[in-house]
Structure formats: C-alpha cells, structure tokens
Design a protein that fits this description.
This is propionyl-CoA carboxylase. One of its GO terms (cellular component) is mitochondrial matrix. It is found in: Mitochondrion matrix. Pathway: Metabolic intermediate metabolism; propanoyl-CoA degradation; succinyl-CoA from propanoyl-CoA: step 1/3. By secondary structure, this protein is an alpha+beta fold. The chain has six domains: about 80 residues, 3-Layer(aba) Sandwich (Rossmann fold); about 150 residues, ATP-grasp fold, B domain (D-amino Acid Aminotransferase, Chain A, domain 1), CATH 3.30.470.20; about 70 residues, ATP-grasp fold, A domain (Dna Ligase, domain 1, 2-Layer Sandwich); about 110 residues, D-amino Acid Aminotransferase, Chain A, domain 1 (2-Layer Sandwich), CATH 3.30.470; about 120 residues, Glycoprotein, Type 4 Pilin (2-Layer Sandwich), CATH 3.30.700; about 70 residues, OB fold (Dihydrolipoamide Acetyltransferase, E2P). It is built from 16 helices and 37 strands. It has an eight-stranded antiparallel β-sheet, with helices on both faces. Strands 25-24-23-22-29-28-27-26 form an eight-stranded antiparallel β-sheet. Helix 3 runs antiparallel to helix 4, helix 4 crosses helix 5 and helix 6 packs across helix 7. The protein is globular.
C-alpha cells in the first residue's frame, strides 16, 4: 500500500523476520512480555520517536487493551482496530454476554456475575449443573479456561484458571457457564466501518482444539447449511451495529448437533486464522482494517461476499504432539524450508532458518494455509505441503496435523471440540503403519544405505591416473524397524534400485540426494515424499514418513552378525522421579523432603507459554529430594522430584 512501517521488538526478537522486513525497528525492552510487548509506555515512546501515525496491534498482547487505545487516541495516533467502547464491552465476558443478549444474539446459560472463591465456584456449578466451563472474564486464546465435571474439578479449575488469568491478562476474575458437550466451535468474521455499515464474511470451522486452543481451521464449515450460516451472520452483524463496531472482528459461537448456536465471545481484533477467510472471499482483511481506520466507508456489501473454494489452515507449532497433544518445545531452527513450491500454499510465519523458539512467547512456527476448489483438494494440498515441510531443531506437531487430515471422522466432517480426546483416547501415538507403508519405508532406508555406500567409493579431485575402485551394485542388508528384523537384497540397475524383501520386489527410482532433506521419488511408478532427518555410520537412519519420524537401523549382513555379539546398554528406571515434560518456569512446589505423596497427587506446577501444567506423582511414596523451587527455569526431562 506504500505505507512505511515501524517494527517494535524485544531483545529476544532482535533478529526476527518482522524486524528485518520493516522500514524501521525499535527495541522496546527485555524478553519478558511485561517489560516489552505489554509495556504501553515503551511502545508509546517508540510511536513518538518514529513519528508514527497509526498502530496495528497484531493478534495478541495489547490488541484488545482499551487503556492502550485510549493513550494512542490522546496522542492523536490512529488505532487500526475498534473503539475503546467496543473493546471494553467485548473484552469482559460478563458484559459481552449482556450486550449480546441485548442485540438479540443467542447466549449460553450461566452465572451472571463474578465468582468470589473456589467454594463459590462449586456452589454455582451445582446450581447450573455439571459439566461447567470455568474461564477468565478478561481471557482469550484458550488461557484461563477449565472444564469441571464435579466439585473437585471445580475447585482445581478455579485455582488454575484464576492463576493463569492473572499471569496472562493481569485480571483474575472468573465466570462460570454451562458447558455444551460435543459442540462445534464456529466463528463468523465481520467487518464494520465508521459509517454504520457492517458485513459478515461467512464462517470458519475451528472445532479441532487442544486445551481450548485451535489446531486446524477451515472455511467454510462442512456442517452448516445456508439457513444457519445466514442466521449466524445476521446475529453477528446485529451485535456489530449494536456496538457501533468498526474494523475486523470475530464473533465466536458454539453450535450443537442440531445446528442451534450460542454466543461464546467476540474477539475485537484480527484472528490468527484470518487467511482462510481471505482465500474463500478474496477480501484482504488487513487492507480493509487500514482503510476503515483511515475513515473510508466499506466498498463491500453483503452480496459481494462469496464462498469460492475451500481453505484449510494447519497451525504448525513447536510442540511435542505425543505429550498431551502438544507441550512446548524450544530450540534453534538449524534447518527450515517452507513448502512454497506446492501450488495454492500460503505460509504466514515469523521465523527463518536460524531463528530460536524460546520459552517467552507462543510456540507457533507457521500458519500453513492451503486452498482448493473443493474440500478434498484443500486436504490433499495440505498433505503434500506437510510432507514437504522441513523443520529441524525443535519438536513440532506436523505428525498430529498430518494424521488428523487423513482420519476418517475429519474427512467425513464428523468433528467437535472433543475431537482429539475421542479419536485419540490414549493420546497421539504417531502414524500407524500398514504393511505397504512399512515396505516403502524399508525400501527407502535400504536405498539410502546403498547410496551412502556408493558415495564412499567416490573421491573428489583425484588424479586421473589413480586406480578407480568399482562401485558396488548389489547389497545384502538387515533392516530393523520396531525391533523387527528383515533381510533384503538391493540391486542397482541403471537409474533404479530393485529392493527384494521376502516375496516382494520394489522398484525405487534413484532420485535420492543425500545432501537434501527431502526424498521425492517413485516406488513402483507411484510418487512418494519422505524426509531424511539423520544418518550415521552405525546404520541408524531417521526418516519422516507421512508426518511421523521413524528410526530404522540398516546394516550389512556381516555387520549385523557382529552387532549381536555386543553387550546391551542397561535401561534407566524413571519410575521414582517426576520429570519436567517441557521447558518452562516452576510456578509452585507442593511437597517437601519427607512428605508422603499419593499417586495422582500434585507435586508442582510448571508454567510454559503462559499455560500452567499441574504435575502429579506417578506412584505413592515418600519424597527423597526436591530439586527445584518456585521461580526456577527448567528444561525438558529435568528431574524435579525424587521418591524413595
């Protein structure tokens, strides 16, 4: 648009992508959010120093902070967002519910007031009837939210939700409302201007969540019929007009199995998942926000808003999906390649190769948005993009994302906010391989080993007179996967490897480049994509197949016989310790040396990415040692508590 930009950043983000992209950049403080991104005075100083005329707040931090907007307006600076009144009205969940009711919007039954303490919370929950949702009045982004199904849950939920709310929002007020079991989370995107005009840009389906935070979003929803879509959109617009709302906003609803919908909250900011709406409507939401903030009227009417095609956003996080569907992982990205070579793919990310994922901020790496003419097209594009997405240095959730996109319930559109716990009742275990999958992985592993062996016969810059060693063209190998050993024979013929296993022979085209992380080749004429994560001289290979990393051991037949003579390494007993499941900060410790703890009793709380995680004793016993105290920073798998 020809508008010069100023980026603000903390010390931890001094090499961030947005800092390099902006025309100017101003450091606003240390890594801690309260000293930088939540420090209004520091940001106001940056605004004044650079002569900025407007501020776009992004997705989080001060994007819904009315005090910040008031200070900007007092200084004559435009806020690219809604009014103070709208932010205040929708930012408080109690007030927003009252305003929604006044605008004729369907609302969820609940307690219309502030919860005083844990006992009061239990009393209210009994009156409403379990299950109930306990959540921060000033909250958002899934923080400060707990589901309670009994009195004990209500007491624990009140304590943890209020602590998270105070930590994340500086406001520990809590409210309680009826929890609708197996609902869909469907939201309506709205745009309003300063001239009284408002439109809705259809819906986004955001039902697949973990800990009330979205994992996969899509637009449109496979569930809604045209009548329900229109009714939800009209109620969202009614709320906007009641508020005098301008800028982009999102009205979130819970929708039950009969397409009855209830107001959840309104986010008075741009949503993380806004690209899926941009894809299916052709409307650039940020462009519209800037025009509206300048005072221009909307040039769009409701009939100008189409639904064209389908878009799916996969939130790629630096998280371990095998731990509670995603506990944060930190580290430096030593290899990072986005799948932008795949058509109809958009990557919205704030990191590059070499960037560090720290404990200070949200662990999102990228919003991977894929588009297609149909939902199946969008799913297939997403699968190809995820298979080609190279991320090294941190644990990430691509295995879970990829598995969801191929799961039967998701493909059929049979989803709810309980999706993950219902589809993966024992937690996510990774891609479950069938016999064909195993053959493909073993064949690629055998070919990689053969390529490495061939390379060892090649000498660069050798003199022409040097005697050449003949490269091998046949190998007898022993391959191990899941502790199952299999002998296979590999033969190189022309540009193909022929891999014979048991009674089957697979033909693998030699498109394998050992210096590339991607393996894009054909097996028996069918295209296949894998990733080579690591390889070493001991025969250990790590290969990513359909999102999940598999460890394979490949040895020559001779080396395999020698290996059987080696002594086994003893395993370490971890049944008597409590390990940190993620990097973070110790919020509190609930035991001392000599205490007797029951199985399942809380021993400490770890805070990571502003989420509080209660750690419990795995078995009953007496505490032998406590290695941490409140305020300590811990790493993944650090020993926190030892038992006798």
């Amino acid at each position: 648009m020809g508008i010069k930009t100023v980026a603000v950043y903390s010390i931890a983000d001094n090499n961030a992508r947005h800092v390099r992209m902006a025309d100017e950049a101003v450091c606003i403080g240390p890594a801690a959010t309260k000293d930088s991104y939540l420090n209004i005075d520091h940001i106001m100083l940056a605004v004044t120093k650079t002569g900025s005329q407007a501020v776009h707040p992004g997705y989080g931090f001060l994007s819904e902070n009315a005090v910040f907007v008031e200070k900007l307006e007092a200084a004559g600076i435009s806020f690219i967002g809604p009014s103070v009144e709208a932010i205040n009205g929708m930012g408080d969940k109690l007030e927003s519910k009252r305003l929604a009711q006044a605008a004729g919007v369907n609302t969820i039954p609940g307690f219309d007031g502030i919860v005083n303490d844990a006992d009061h919370c239990v009393q209210i929950a009994r009156e409403i009837s379990y299950p109930v949702m306990i959540k921060a009045s000033a909250g958002g982004g899934g923080k400060g939210m707990r589901i309670a199904r009994n009195d004990d849950d209500a007491r624990d939920g009140f304590r943890l939700a209020s602590q998270e709310a105070a930590s994340s929002f500086g406001d520990d007020r809590i409210l309680v409302e009826k929890f609708i079991d197996k609902p869909r989370h469907i939201e309506i995107q709205v745009l309003g201007d300063k001239h009284g005009n408002a439109v809705y840009l259809n819906e986004r389906e955001c039902s697949i969540q973990r800990r009330n935070q979205k994992v996969i979003e899509e637009a449109p929803s496979v569930f809604l019929n045209e009548g329900t879509r229109k009714a939800m959109g009209e109620q969202a617009v009614s709320l906007c007009k009641r508020l005098g709302y301008y800028s982009a906003g999102t009205v979130e609803f819970l929708v039950d199995s009969e397409q009855k919908f209830y107001f959840l909250e309104m986010n008075t900011r741009l949503q993380v998942e806004h690209p899926v709406t941009e894809y299916i409507t052709g409307v650039d939401l940020v462009h519209q926000m800037i025009r509206i903030a300048k005072g221009h009227p909307l040039l769009l009417t409701q009939k100008d808003i189409p639904i064209k095609g389908w878009a799916i956003e996969s939130r790629v996080y630096s998280e371990d999906p095998y731990k509670n569907f995603g506990l944060p992982s930190i580290g430096r990205l030593y290899k990072y390649i986005e799948p932008l070579h795949v058509p109809n793919v958009r990557c919205d990310s704030g990191i590059d190769e070499g960037s560090e994922i720290s404990i200070y901020y949200d662990p999102m790496i990228c919003k991977l948005v894929c588009y297609g003419n149909t939902r199946n097209d969008a799913i297939n594009t997403s699968l190809e993009a995820l298979d080609s997405y190279v991320i090294r240095g941190v644990t990430h959730n691509i295995p879970l994302l990829r598995d969801i996109l191929t799961e039967t319930n998701f493909i059929e559109g049979n989803i709810s906010t309980n999706y993950l716990s219902e589809v993966y009742p024992d937690g996510f275990k990774g891609r479950q391989l069938n016999s064909t999958d195993k053959q493909h992985i073993l064949a690629i592993a055998a070919c990689v080993f053969s390529k490495m062996d061939m390379r060892s016969y090649t000498f660069l810059n050798e003199r022409p007179s040097t005697a050449k060693r003949k490269e091998p063209a046949e190998w007898t190998l022993v391959i191990s996967l899941f502790d199952e050993e299999l002998q296979c024979d590999v033969k190189k013929v022309g540009n193909k490897f022929h891999v014979h296993m048991k009674t089957d022979t697979l033909s693998v085209e030699d498109h394998i480049n050992l210096s590339s992380p991607l393996i894009q080749t054909n097996i028996n004429g069918k295209p296949i994509v894998m990733q080579l994560v690591s390889k070493d001289a001991s025969g250990k290979l790590q290969i990513v197949y359909q999102g999940t990393t598999f460890t394979i051991f490949v040895l020559s037949d001779k080396a395999s016989k020698f290996l059987k003579m080696m002594p086994e390494k003893p395993t370490v007993d971890v049944s008597k310790v409590v390990l940190s499941p993620m990097p973070g900060m110790v919020k509190s410790v609930s035991c001392e040396v000599g205490d007797t703890m029951a199985e399942g009793q809380e021993v400490c709380i770890i805070e990571a990415m502003k989420m509080q995680n209660s750690l419990v004793a795995g078995a009953s016993g007496k505490v032998k040692a406590v290695h941490v105290k409140a305020g300590d920073t811990v790493g993944e798998d650090d020993v926190l508590i030892e038992f006798e």
